[in-house]
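User: Quick sanity check before I run a bigger batch. Here is a single chain. Can you write out its predicted 3D structure?
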Amino acid sequence: MKIDSVSVHLKKLAIVFVGAVLNAFAMNFFLKPANVYASGFTGIAQLLSKIITQFTPLNVSTGLLLFLLNIPVAILGWRKIGKTFTLYSFISVVIMSVLLEIIPIQKSSNDILLYSVFGGVISAVGVGITLKFGASTGGLDIIAMVLSRMKDKPVGNYFFILNAVIIITAGAVYGWDKALYTLLSLYASTRVIDAIHTRYQKLTAMIITKKSDELKKAIHGKLVRGITMVPVKGAFSNEERQMLIIVITRYELYDLEHMIKEVDPNAFTNIVQTIGIFGFFRKD
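Assistant: Done. Predicted structure follows.
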C-alpha cells in the first residue's frame, strides 16, 4: 500500500472518530438531557430506548439500539454501495455506540431551547465533516445512497418521512413541546450541514480537463454515472480541452473530488446544485 494511500485512510479514520465523538457528545450533553430527539436512525434509537425503558421491564440503551439498527443497513451498503464507504460508516456507528455508553448523561438545565440548538449544531458538525471526507454516520444515509443508485427518485422524501415519524411520535408520547424543540434542533443541524458539506441530494459537476479519457475511465471505474463530454476552448489561452458533465449524489462528491485530484490536479471543476433532472439518472 502506498504511503499516500495510508495517509488518506488514517486521515479519514481520524475524521470519522472526531465526527462520532461530536455526535455522542451532542446526544449525552444536550439532546438526551432535554428530551430532544436527533434525526435519522439516532433519533429512532433514542426514542425506542425511552419507550422501551418507560413502558416495559427492559432497559435497552440508545447506543445498543443504534448499533443493532445499523447491522442490516451495513450489510445492504456492503452489497450495494461499496466496501470502503460502508466500512467507514459502520466504524462511525460503532464508535458512536460505544461513546454513548461511556459518556455520562449530563443534567438538563431549564433552557431547553439552548440545549436544542446547541445539540443540533454540534451533531451537525460531526455529520458534516464525516460526509465531507467520504463517509457517513450510517443509518438513513446508507439507505438513501442505495435508493439513489436503484431508483431515480428524490431520497429527501425518505428523510422527511422518517424524521416526521420521530417528531410526531415524540409529540404524541411525551408532549408537543418536545416535538417542537426536536423540529428546531433538526432545522439548526440542517443549516450547519449546508455550510460544511451540502444538503442537496443531486449535484452537477462540470470538469474542464486535458486528460478527459483518463478521468472518464477513473470515474466509470468508481461511480455508476453517465458522463457527457463537450469540446471547449479557452478564451484567453486558445487551448483545446474537454468538459465532462456528470450528475452525482452528494454522497459521491468526495470520491469524485479525490479522482480529479489524482488524475488531473490542474483540472477546473465547477460543482452546482441540481434542482431536478429529466430522463434516466444512471446511464446515458
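The mean pLDDT is 82.

User: Great, the batch can go ahead then.
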